[in-house]
Amino acid sequence: MSDIRNVVVLGVRDVPATGLVGKEIVKALLDDGSFYVTIVRRIGGSSSRPFPESSRLREVGDVDYSSVNSLKKAFEGQHAVVEALNPSGVVHQDKIVQAAVETESVRHIITPDFSGNYLNEHIHELRIYDDKVEAHKVTKQLIQQRDSLHWTAILTGAFFDWAIDNGIFWVDAKARQVTIFGSGNQRNAYAALDVVGRATIRVLKDPKAYQDRQAYFADYIISCNDLLNTLNELEYQTWTAKNVSLDDFYEQGKKLWDEDTAKGVQDRRSTMGYIMLGTYGCFNEEDRYSTDYTGRVEPGFGWTRDQFAQELQKAIDKARQE
User: How far is CA 135 from the centre of its chain?
Assistant: First the structure.
């Protein structure tokens, strides 16, 4: 059993209206009851309180992510650092890791991932994971300074319930339509948003099992064609397919990305270039970017087909109510 009890979470209140992943992680840690949680709010971060009062929760405010000393004060007495950072925070990875190295109590870092498999050898072609790749390199380099400090990268795949609810997934709940990219046979890893909390707890309770490696925590793996079939089995009214060719899809996305670069765009997550490159990465017919987690998911983790269908229905019902 792990002796990690004090956990500091970065990224819950970095800037207003962000911190989605961090909030889920903090909620899960508190609900579990085994951990004392510290929220770090960086300078200029939101001061609204997203959690109820708890003796197991405290906040450290106005932390300077660009200062090792400022971070060390926030890390004092902590056993683990969980990085639920938005892209603007990842640029400070060198300072964050160095502060953890210099804080003797810290024994484990969960790196700023909670995404697709950015450790794939071809991932540089997509560009959307460049910041994460660089942060990973920095982590592996700096963490070698102390043998008693280790890392884990949590890889989840797409948050299907959150994406359906926000209308940015290939499942359109109200139109009862599934977008089929290419052949529709490429399998992708899906997870409910709360997987970030479930996976974090699993790692922190048994850190040696996930020490110094990427850990795969997808809930289910399915193709768009199978997704369409599942939806037609779930509901009385027929779901239809919207077919989108992948011919020139990558080239178009890369062109838009380059245009945004020339314009000095910083936050790309809602840009068409980002969306197209990410979509191409998911549906490349040869699984060039390792979005099919078959054989990689951690033992004992994941759902049955029936469980996935139930959660999918919940996500669709919620999206239709809003």
Answer: 14
Same domain, 19 and 145: yes
- The distance from CA 60 to its chain's CA centroid, rounded to whole angstroms, is 23
* pLDDT score recorded for residue 2: 73
Alpha helices in the chain (DSSP H): 20-32, 68-75, 87-90, 93-101, 130-142, 160-165, 195-205, 224-234, 249-263, 272-283, 305-321
Residue 147 lies in domain = 6-157+191-216
The CA distances from residue 228 to 65, 81, 144, 222, in Å, are 44, 40, 47, 10
Please write the tens of the pLDDT for every residue from 114-132: 988 888 899 999 999 998 8
Do both 168 and 312 map to the same domain? yes
- pLDDT tens digits, residue range 67-79? 999 999 999 999 9
Smallest CA-to-CA distance from 126 within 290, 293, 295 is with 290
Confidence of residue 243 (pLDDT cuts 50, 70, 90): very high
